[in-house]
Amino acid sequence: MRGAVTAWMAALALAGVGRLEAQTDPRLVNAVRAAQEGQSDSARGAVQRLLDATPPSDTLYPQILYTQAMVASTAGEMRRLLQRVSVEYATSEWADDALLRLVQMDYATRNYDGAARNLERLRTDFPASSLMAQASYWAARTYFDSNKPQDACRWLADGMAKAQTDVELQNQLGYLYQRCDLRSDSTAAQAPAGPGAPGAPPPADTGVRDSTRTTAAAPPSNAPSPAPPSPGTPTPAAPAPTAAPAPAPAPSATRPARTVYRVQIAAVGTRKGAEDAARKARPLGLTVVTVRQGNLYKVRVGEYPTREAAQNAAASLKAKLGGTPFVVSEP
After folding, report:
1. For position 9, what pLDDT does the model report?
2. How is domain 260-330 classified at the architecture level of CATH?
3. Tell me, what's the pLDDT at 94?
4. Is residue 296 within 8 Å of residue 273, measured between CB atoms?
5. The pTM is what?
6. CA 64 to CA 48: how far, in whole Å?
7. Domain-wise residue ranges, the chain
8. β-pair partners for 330
């Protein structure tokens, strides 16, 4: 299985976000480069000789262990070395790198519980780590795939706030965060309507009436009856009938608000990223609208009268622009 682990880790790097912190010792840099070029046995030998010549108390020792994990011949050996770094050298600058590599390994093998444990340890033990923005990407994938969207969205929000200078990482986090937006829209759509809301059922009749409503009250049962008129007393004339009030004009029907459907093509963390996405869409002759919500700039195109028309446009835009366009509604 020569070079299998190195190739597997390279595939992980391509599927995910930016590279973790690079080795600083030139000998280790050369060993990693040799492994990437297919000289895995030579790389492992060089790292082992350096490890044998370095006392465990040396600050370089955890970096050597970490590099040895990167060029290991089996996944089991890689995991064992990374765990040594994260446990035996938990105060070194390589412990958070080791934890994040363990998260990637667990995610790749669908061990979502293991990935979540290492992610939460990373958050607890290394809250100021420069890798937290990258960790949020893997946390989002882990928690979405294990059906825990609230945890995924919490990590994404933190990650986008910390990835201020990494535009590529912001774009990747923003792409995943669209699922949080869709979830919020779905929750709002399914929320029960409150009293008086459009479509809400009328309140049940509890027997309580509006206190402002005036009705003729019946006299109390113990009230004395009016005395009959005495003989010879003229009966008062009945009041002249009054004209019935004219009926009030019926209120004009309120015109429902017009809903516009657009297709969202991007959600990015910087204005420049939004402008780049808009620039790609304008040659298609579509209206381009950029909406800022929280830390994200959301680029939406088109103006469609029905959801079906917008969905058809989204399919066409996917073929032309790539990505995962989806329909949003705006009042």
Report:
1. 52
2. 2-Layer Sandwich (3.30)
3. 94
4. no
5. 0.56
6. 8
7. 4-129, 139-188, 260-330
8. 260
Q: Which residues pair with 264 in a beta bridge?
A: 300, 326
pLDDT of residue 197: 44
- Measured distance CA(171)–CA(18) in Å, rounded: 12
- d(Cα 309, Cα 261) in Å, to the nearest integer? 8
Regions of the chain where pLDDT drops below 70: 1-21, 181-258, 331
Contacts with 202 (C-beta within 8 Å, 6 or more apart), sequence order = none
Q: Tokens in use for 41?
A: 């046995």
Residue with tokens 């780590």: 129
Q: What is the pLDDT of residues 45-92, one digit of tens each?
A: 999 999 999 999 999 999 999 999 999 999 999 999 999 999 999 999
In order of 1, 49, 58, 121, the CA distances from 44 in angstroms are 14, 9, 20, 29
For residue 231, the model assigns a pLDDT of 53
Q: Does domain 4-129 have CATH number 1.25.40.10?
A: yes
| CA distance linking residue 269 with residue 124, whole number of Å | 26
Environment class of residue 230 by beta-carbon count within 10 Å: exposed (0-12), middle (13-18) or buried (19+)?
exposed
d(CA 123, CA 145): 20
The DSSP code sequence of 21-40 is PPP-SHHHHHHHHHHHTT-H
Tokens of 113: 């519980």
pLDDT at 11: 42
Alpha helices in the chain (DSSP H): 4-15, 26-36, 40-52, 61-70, 75-88, 95-108, 112-125, 132-145, 149-162, 167-190, 271-281, 307-321
Task: Give the residue from 63, 59, 276, 22 showing the smallest Cα distance to 170.
Answer: 276
